[in-house]
Amino acid sequence: MVEIKTDAALDAMREAGRVVARALAAVREAADVGVSLRDLDEAARAVLADAGAGSPFLGYRPSFAPVAFPAVICTSVNDAVSHGIPTGYRLRDGDLVSIDCGAELDGWTGDAAISFTVGTPRPGDLDLIDATQEALDAGIAAARVGGRIGDISHAIDTVARKAGCGMPADFGGHGIGRHMHEDPHVPNRGRPGRGFPLRRGLVLAIEPMLMAGGQNTYRTDSDGWTLRTTDGSRAAHIEHTVAITDQGPRVLTLP
């Protein structure tokens, strides 16, 4: 079931989105050579606690997962595409890091992700991040009243193909509101003019995940969560929560 949000609900979701933005900023600031992934999770937890917000990630267990997710952020490093569990791994010079974070505040949810490099970037990593950001920007630009989900999907896919990047076929964005994952699904590939209609008050988490090697296949780690590229190439993941409004797309997870 797709829930259309009122203006008041969008304002409430914007507050949850601000918390997500602050948590991601805190993680980005804390990330440095020698810092562990668990340290990054603690930085995000402190922001959520200070805001009186909960985490939609902590304890989340979808049908595919063997265990509940144990953290408030996903930390995906280098060839990890998404859903990485924060561990004791300490960041190294040249690591490419993707952080996904959510917040629940006053019954509403925000969800966003960033990708960045630590220390000296490896060749191609900044181009990969830029392409992922461009894909997200294109998807957001297509999120307009009167369009279709396929318009967003096609816009993302066009950028990814131009960059020569692959994307995990089974994963994409989603509706969001009272819960982190709601209908409709937002594929990162699709045909324009197809799919669910974009109506005023619809809120979507739009999240391209680009894999530098150009393949669309992935594998899942033994932890049951972490997705990795099958060819060992690097991956980037960037996401925003976006509302469809009469004035155009409204990004709810900006600072």
Automatic annotation (TrEMBL):
<keyword id="KW-0645">Protease</keyword>
<feature type="domain" description="Peptidase M24">
    <location>
        <begin position="12"/>
        <end position="246"/>
    </location>
</feature>
<keyword id="KW-0479">Metal-binding</keyword>
<feature type="binding site">
    <location>
        <position position="111"/>
    </location>
    <ligand>
        <name>a divalent metal cation 1</name>
    </ligand>
</feature>
<comment type="similarity">
    <text>Belongs to the peptidase M24A family. Methionine aminopeptidase type 1 subfamily.</text>
</comment>
<feature type="binding site">
    <location>
        <position position="174"/>
    </location>
    <ligand>
        <name>a divalent metal cation 2</name>
    </ligand>
</feature>
<dbReference type="Pfam" id="PF00557">
    <property type="entry name" value="Peptidase_M24"/>
</dbReference>
<keyword id="KW-0031">Aminopeptidase</keyword>
<feature type="binding site">
    <location>
        <position position="239"/>
    </location>
    <ligand>
        <name>a divalent metal cation 1</name>
    </ligand>
</feature>
<keyword id="KW-0378">Hydrolase</keyword>
<dbReference type="GO" id="GO:0004177">
    <property type="term" value="F:aminopeptidase activity"/>
</dbReference>
<dbReference type="InterPro" id="IPR000994">
    <property type="entry name" value="Pept_M24"/>
</dbReference>
<protein>
    <recommendedName>
        <fullName>Methionine aminopeptidase</fullName>
        <ecNumber>3.4.11.18</ecNumber>
    </recommendedName>
</protein>
<dbReference type="InterPro" id="IPR002467">
    <property type="entry name" value="Pept_M24A_MAP1"/>
</dbReference>
<comment type="subunit">
    <text>Monomer.</text>
</comment>
<feature type="binding site">
    <location>
        <position position="239"/>
    </location>
    <ligand>
        <name>a divalent metal cation 2</name>
    </ligand>
</feature>
<feature type="binding site">
    <location>
        <position position="83"/>
    </location>
    <ligand>
        <name>substrate</name>
    </ligand>
</feature>
<comment type="function">
    <text>Removes the N-terminal methionine from nascent proteins. The N-terminal methionine is often cleaved when the second residue in the primary sequence is small and uncharged (Met-Ala-, Cys, Gly, Pro, Ser, Thr, or Val). Requires deformylation of the N(alpha)-formylated initiator methionine before it can be hydrolyzed.</text>
</comment>
<feature type="binding site">
    <location>
        <position position="100"/>
    </location>
    <ligand>
        <name>a divalent metal cation 1</name>
    </ligand>
</feature>
<feature type="binding site">
    <location>
        <position position="181"/>
    </location>
    <ligand>
        <name>substrate</name>
    </ligand>
</feature>
<feature type="binding site">
    <location>
        <position position="207"/>
    </location>
    <ligand>
        <name>a divalent metal cation 2</name>
    </ligand>
</feature>
<feature type="binding site">
    <location>
        <position position="111"/>
    </location>
    <ligand>
        <name>a divalent metal cation 2</name>
    </ligand>
</feature>
<dbReference type="InterPro" id="IPR001714">
    <property type="entry name" value="Pept_M24_MAP"/>
</dbReference>
<dbReference type="InterPro" id="IPR036005">
    <property type="entry name" value="Creatinase/aminopeptidase-like"/>
</dbReference>
